[in-house]
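Researcher: Here's the sequence for the chain we discussed earlier.
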Amino acid sequence: MKVGKALYWAFQNIERFLIIVSYGSMTGIIFVEVIRRFLFNEQSAWSTTIPIYLFLWLAWMGASYNTLKRSHLRFTEMRERLSYGAQFGCLILDAVLWFVMGAVVIFFSVEQVYIAYDNFSIVQGTDNVMQWWFYLATPCAWALLLVRVTQNLVSDYHDFKAGRPLAVQAATFGD
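Model: Thanks. This is the structure I predict for it:
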């Protein structure tokens, strides 16, 4: 039972963890390298490229997290004025559009990851840090985003069937 709870917690917080790790790493690298540049007149060659690649993980996991919290771009004012059935229809349309967009993004980003992997592309300024490790952020985060869309759709379906209010208004500024 404890393992199940731990896995559930990890799955519900994976985006937060990766956002914090990537943001903390970016901040740490930039902070240390600014100090080194101005105080010691030296800088690591990779210090300007790794934070940019870490931003891929930050941005795409942030998109997945916002989908989980339903704080992505929505037309809330219009939806609140619709009938209950039309609100549910809009939520289904949202999910369909997310899946179409996700399929396109995953298809093309996996190809980009494969090209970087196949060409042994390394991050500029490093000897052995592969670019595809960072490019993998896009298909991984979008796959997780589609899982979150599915979770939201299942929740919406259960709410609709039970006659409970639908999650039309996004949760903002917190959990």
